[in-house]
Input
Amino acid sequence: MNFANRTIWTADNMEILPGIDSECVDLIYLDPPFNSNRDYAAPIGSKAAGAAFKDTWTLSDLDVAAMGRLADTHPGVYAVIEAAGKVHGKGMMSYLVMMADRLVELHRILKPSGSLYLHCDPTANSYLRLVLDGVFGLGNFMNEIVWKRRQGASSAVHKSRRYGVVTDTILFYTKSSEASFETQYTMDDPQYQDYIKRTFKYIDDNGRRYGTDNLANPALRPNLIYEYKGYPPPQKGWAISKAKMEQWDAEGRLHFPSNPTGRIRRKRFLDELKGKPVQNLWADIRMISSHSKERTGYPTQKPLALMERIIVASSNEGDVVLDPFCGCATTCIAAEKLGRRWAGIDISPNAVNQIRYRMAQTNLDIGGRTLSVHTSAPVRSDGTKMPRRQIKHTLYGQQEGDCNGCGEHFAFHMLEIDHVWPRSKGGPDTLENSQLLCRHCNSLKATGTMDDLAVKLTAWQRGGR
Ligand SMILES: C[S@@+](CC[C@H](N)C(=O)[O-])C[C@H]1O[C@@H](n2cnc3c(N)ncnc32)[C@H](O)[C@@H]1O
Ligand SMILES: [Zn+2]
Output
């Protein structure tokens, strides 16, 4: 991993993710906004850019560049986004391009044993599911978790023409079948509470509540037919040996009926009950109330209990947890509490202030010293290093002599090595981060990214040629 534990980046996450080493994160939770930082509904027109969109869409040049990349690397995702655009319009298309770009990077930095949870807005969840299927592969879809975040009693929830919305969707994917997962349990379920009331109806001398289980053997076992403390055996015998019966008796685990001809039963203690395994419907975690101690005032703040469940289920102590849209850093606080390493990214500098404040408030003050705050990407440490001459030969073969910008063919000496992710943003001198560009494309790209080059090439092609 090429970043420190307890790192917060205040930047657009797409400026940071390309700098993170591949396969170094165990768990990613993201809770992106639908429409906050870009005006998705009003992209800049670029009808001429990219044959696929000619006369059909008016997406921004950046969207078109990203779509081009997706068409090459993830044709399924490209098709999904195109279809979403037809059904839902260019605003959705632009939003999904933004998300797909980031999800591809997030998938790259996840370890093979890693998991990702995407918290969605109901407007886009059906499309995001398809995008995620394309990025992660169908077999790695684990759950659609439905989180009941409102009780529904408030009049604000009621709608005149349809049902009120009281849930969010969290899409859970793993990178492979190696992902670690630990079943969680809950007691907080009205039906389960009814069952507990019905079942655990006795109290022992120590004040422990318990229920009872049958101790009769279903099949005839003549050697297990014995009397115990004057109580008669069941017709087919007991389920356990006399030695076991004595042991459980000594441990206070036997229930003796008041009726001397009744049947001895086994005690099951309520305090030993783990609870009901958590399923994909989460109704036991409440939204933060207006007077909750947890409340920071951040409008989209999620409850710590929600993050704790996800972190405990899908990571182990010491694992690395990343939240690329961390907001007031709920994921980071929960990860700290649970002994995980963590990092968060948020475009708003407010996140850093929030996290300092919350760490102190939660008695998790890690001190200004150990919280690493950055505004630029780390330098990748995981690429293939080789001499520049060898890189150029390898790339000339890989690209078959074509410029990676304009696509034209050039002689070996006419192509130049370029950093795909710019050196100024931390791009390393590795084979993976290198490409060959013609002199013209290289000077257009300058210290920019491939997206910048795509935009400039489009403008140049429109203006000239
Ligand atoms: C829904 S909030 C996350 C709330 C968070 N789960 C919490 O409990 O506080 C979304 C966050 O994403 C941030 N954001 C939006 N676009 C971003 C981007 N491109 N890169 C990084 N952060 C971004 C916003 O500033 C906002 O804080
Ligand atoms: Zn070129």
User: Anything to note?
Assistant: The pocket of S-adenosylmethionine (ligand 1) is lined by residues 12-13, 31-33, 36-37, 298, 300-302, 325, 327-328, 330, 345-348 (CB under 6 Å).
